[in-house]
Amino acid sequence: MTVIKAALLGFGTVGQGVYEAIQTHSEQLKKLLGASVSVEAVLVKDITKERPGVPRELLTDNFNDILSIPDLQIVFEAIVGVEPALGYLKQSIAKGCHIVTANKVLFAQHGNSLQQEASRKGVTVGFEATTAGGAPVIRTIKELLRVNKISRIEGILNGTSNYILTLMREENYTFEAALKLSQEKGYAEADPENDVEGYDALNKLLILSELAFGEKPDLSVSGVEGITRITLEDIQKAKKAGQRYRHLVSAEMTEHGVAASIKPVLLSEDHPLYSVDGVLNAVAITASLAGTVTIKGAGAGKLPTASAMIEDAAALSGKLQTVQPLSARSLFAG
């Protein structure tokens, strides 16, 4: 049986999800791609750490081991932060590999240059997982742009903030109590600043804006407002008025360029994002022919994000060359 060789960079929550998804959905991938997908290596920081379900001989802490894999075609990147991930992706592209990333910080800053490098090498960059987890926002925008002009994007792009606001409205939690529970459930990090102050949403908006409008808004971090100032009293007052607070990102093409904002907004029942609760993400896209198109789905978590990355890989059907299998499990042994 022929195979398509893949490597995985990073084995945190997202990396684990990608590995599990490839194993559990092997038959679907085989039908889509015409060959089995084989994870040939997993790049990790600590090679001595036990990782149940992953053969130890697949693990390496040396990126050169990844580059040395014969006929490697796909590199899944799930590392936090810009470096060393950016260098790894550039080297992967130079090797002729398609890349699939979930790294929103990296892609917000360097996505355009990575896509240009990939185009010169005749490979692709999948980045669906950078914006809204399992909600196919990137794919939808690309499809709309084939025949539409997009004039506006509005979205709830951070599941942690949305979950906190939902708890405050439905359970009368204070912000502090809702944040604590979200941390206990694993929705928020020990340091939740990126989520609750809006910086995570900023990176995602930059990615969507560049895709939809061909440029990023002039929106500095100082212009981003999170949800930390919203009190339980604010939530209750809005609830009585039939309104709901949402942490909303918006970008709109104007004659002066892209105008954007990231801030808490009160929505009424007639707004398409009014009913989006919990950890869900959603984006409402206003297009010239299609009107307003709303996409909603799980915005974070191991499997929704992994799903987005695997879908990017599945979209490569017809662009991949199958090879006869040669197990990589002996590559790093000893």
UniProtKB/TrEMBL annotation:
Record-listed E.C. numbers: 1.1.1.3
Lineage: Bacteria, Bacillati, Bacillota, Bacilli, Bacillales
Ranges where the Homoserine dehydrogenase catalytic domain occurs: 136-312
InterPro entries, A to Z: Asp/hSer_DH_NAD-bd (IPR005106), HDH_cat (IPR001342), HDH_short (IPR022697), NAD(P)-bd_dom_sf (IPR036291)
Pathway the protein takes part in: Amino-acid biosynthesis; L-threonine biosynthesis; L-threonine from L-aspartate: step 3/5; Amino-acid biosynthesis; L-methionine biosynthesis via de novo pathway; L-homoserine from L-aspartate: step 3/3
Protein's name according to its UniProt entry: Homoserine dehydrogenase
Coiled coil spans: none
Organism domain of life: Bacteria
Family: Belongs to the homoserine dehydrogenase family.
Annotated signal peptide: none
SUPFAM superfamilies membership: Glyceraldehyde-3-phosphate dehydrogenase-like, C-terminal domain, NAD(P)-binding Rossmann-fold domains
Domain Aspartate/homoserine dehydrogenase NAD-binding intervals: 10-128
Record key words, sorted: Amino-acid biosynthesis, Methionine biosynthesis, Oxidoreductase, Threonine biosynthesis
